[in-house]
Amino acid sequence: MNEYQILGRIGQGAHGYVMKGLHKTKNKEVALKKVIIKSLDEGIPKNIMREILALRVLKFEYIVELLDVVPHGMGLVLVMEYLPSSLFNLLKDETYVLNMAQIKCYSKMLLLGVNFMHENSIMHRDLKPANLLITDNGVLKIADLGLARIYVKGESNRQYTHQVATRWYRAPELLYGSRMYTPSVDLWAVGCIIAEMLTRKPLFPGETDIEQLAIVLHTLGTPTEDTWPGLQELPDYNKISFSTAAGLDWKEILPGVDDDIINFIKGFIEYDHSKRLGAKEALNHTYFSISPVASDLGDMPKPKDIRNHFLEDAENFENFYSEFEQLINGL
């Protein structure tokens, strides 16, 4: 292998796998995402093309950087900046407790990234802690834009697939099968993520799509046409019915959390997507002006402080390493 030295395995997805590598001449750590094209007839998977196009457009300090795309054999290698940890790792590490100022800093970085995406007419559609990576100096960056999609601002009748977003962070209109939705699905996920930073557990942890919807309705209360205009026209509305629920008190949902923070999170967790806080609006919310102020970057967690669950264990690593090295050799 000429340009890169493989240092370890990061993970594997539906269309390929990712290795940690080192660019030898630049002495720079990178993430190497190998995309395998199973046949010429299939072409490059749509999600990979969308990720490439989105990352080329979204050059921003809170979005992971795509460094290069290298055609190789029957596939591609995406060379991206390497970020050693994630918000998922941090929340999983019980030895590290986030304080309110740090949560506020992460919330701001996340919203700045989402706002930049939406201002460039791109919705992410899969925001979750595992897709929020952390740099060596503590910056949070949005990653994994495989489900990202360009949208036309103000257009309300364009259809998209509803099979997007990881279940726990999936907006209720998606759970009801809506194909006509807006970038507000990203803001629902933002609210779920901020709540999870506060409690260290997912806000709506369903094991199936039906259970997911049931948990949302039990927590927030049964929606009506008044609270959710267009509810009864959603594709899957009549396919299943749930017992009527009054909903829980937000003090029960987020115990020990101040009212100002609860009101901020409630701004995202709205059935009616048109009432959800937009990213720009959220950045101007009083949440960011009340004490404590957002932490300085120097006070944010660093990957060296976090137990890293990012790299997988070494079982069967030699075979995997050899296979990847053969595929990427010659770059």
From TrEMBL:
Subcellular location: Cell projection, Cilium; Cytoplasm; Nucleus
Catalytic activity: L-threonyl-[protein] + ATP = O-phospho-L-threonyl-[protein] + ADP + H(+); L-seryl-[protein] + ATP = O-phospho-L-seryl-[protein] + ADP + H(+)
GO cellular component assignments: cilium; cytoplasm; nucleus
Residues of the Protein kinase domain: 4-288
Keywords recorded for this protein, A-Z: ATP-binding, Cell cycle, Cell division, Cell projection, Cilium, Cytoplasm, Developmental protein, Kinase, Nucleotide-binding, Nucleus, Serine/threonine-protein kinase, Transferase
GO biological process: cell division
Record: residues binding ATP: K38
Family annotation (InterPro entries): CDK (IPR050108), CDK20-like_STKc (IPR048002), Kinase-like_dom_sf (IPR011009), Prot_kinase_dom (IPR000719), Protein_kinase_ATP_BS (IPR017441), Ser/Thr_kinase_AS (IPR008271)
Top-level division of the source organism's lineage: Eukaryota
Enzyme Commission identifier(s): 2.7.11.22
Keyword Cytoplasm: yes
One annotated GO molecular function: ATP binding
Top enzyme category: transferase
CDD domains xref list: STKc_CCRK
PANTHER family: CELL DIVISION PROTEIN KINASE, CYCLIN-DEPENDENT KINASE 20
Family classification: Belongs to the protein kinase superfamily. CMGC Ser/Thr protein kinase family. CDC2/CDKX subfamily.
Protein name: Cyclin-dependent kinase 20
Organism: Popillia japonica (Japanese beetle)
Taxonomic lineage of the native organism: Eukaryota, Metazoa, Ecdysozoa, Arthropoda, Hexapoda
